[in-house]
Amino acid sequence: MYRYRAYGLRIDSEFRLPGLLPSKAGPAVVVVRAGAVEPSVEPAPAPVFRGNARTGHLYWDPVGATRIRDGGEVIVDARDGADDGSVSTFLVGPVLGALLTQRGLTVLHASAVALGEGAVAFVGGPGWGKSTLAGALHLRGHAVVADDIVAVHLAEGVAYVVPGFPQLKLWPEAVADLGEDPERLERLVQAADKRARPTPVGFPADDLRLTNIFVLADGDRLEIEDLRAADAVIELVRHAWGARSLHATEPAKRLSRFAELAEAVPVRRLRRPEPPSPVDELSAFVERALAGEAA
Amino acid sequence: MTRSGVTLAATVVASASQVSQTVEEEAVILELDQGTYYGLDPVGTRVWSLIQEPCTVADVCDAIVAEYDVARERCEADVVGLLEQLAAKNLIEVQP
User: Fold this and answer.
1) Percentage helix, strand, coil, to 5, in chain A?
2) Number of folded domains in chain A?
């Protein structure tokens, strides 16, 4: 059994989960093991979720089937020939996202970086440059708090980000944009060329207050735009983890949770020109904008 | 009579296939069959709160005219227009 910690959880796993921090002591709250999942086959070129708020099945063709129960148990029914990279990437991605949702966290498809007095989250669809921006800010000395899955909890109207694990998932072009050599980074899965960029420097041990959420968008120039309250909620639910697959799971509760988040944290659009301005320019712009607010 | 049947005499009510939430006087509505979200401005949100129980379109207009500085005729056109949009998105039920 491998022992890890991620998203504030002690995880015991029969599968190696590279990227997660190792952990020695303490009882696990999440156990990942191999076993039979029924039904074991469902066509899923992209991850597909079936189930309800307590028990869910997640399918993905390169891996097979998984069952996630009560935010604490993951059963993996891997198909023959599934590569280790695909299994671990699936487990620490979609499966972990579903598990954190079951545990009652508000989960966004986003990256988060420690900036100023707390953490800032960047939300957006695949390929919008969330992870690249997080990487650029990391190179400017800011800690990466989470990538891809950002888990938030609210306490008395204040939002906190739970540190995920210190790694960015980047396409080779993004690695090159950051001025690094993609060939020096490990490839995550067999089927696609994303690389794992470890970001151990400054990785926070404790939850950070979430001070800002930026929705990445195209524009004519670098600018930050306020959003109407309803639009802020809609942007958050659009970019919620499992927006397509989980909307039928307790929809009213989900909607009220994201409304609460929009009330707790300013949600604004961060526009940048197309083709994207050099990522260093964008990261410097974000840094200056937040420094201006703090002053 | 419009295609959606939204007339002043029609009775309208929020449909069962949606959930909604109000943030800072703006309603966000999730249509459950398609999983699509819609946002309403503050006046639209007031209309939305009125039609949580069945009422006639004329009743809705009475309330809006009483609460906002708007001429009756303009109000009727706006309310009917909004309700037609909501009907087209399957967010309300309309009884002629």
Assistant:
1) 25, 35, 40
2) 2
Whether residue B28 and residue A230 make contact (CB cut-off 8 A), yes or no, is: yes
Strand-pairing partners, residue A49, are A58
* pTM value > 0.95: no
A167 and A250 share one domain? yes
The verdict on A53 and A158 lying in the same domain is no
Task: Provide ipTM, 2 decimals.
Answer: 0.74
**Chain center to CA of B28:** 13
A153 and A200 inside one domain: yes
| Contact A42/B at CB under 8 A | no
The nearest CA of chain B is from the CA of A90 a distance in Å of: 24
Same domain, A135 and A252: yes
| Residue among A230, A237, A248 minimizing CB distance to B27 | A230
Give the count of beta carbons closer than 10 Å to the beta carbon of residue A221.
9
* Cross-chain Cβ contact A262/B23 below 8 Å: yes
Question: Domain ends where: A102, A134, A165?
Answer: A102
Per-residue confidence (pLDDT) for residue B37, from 0 to 100: 86
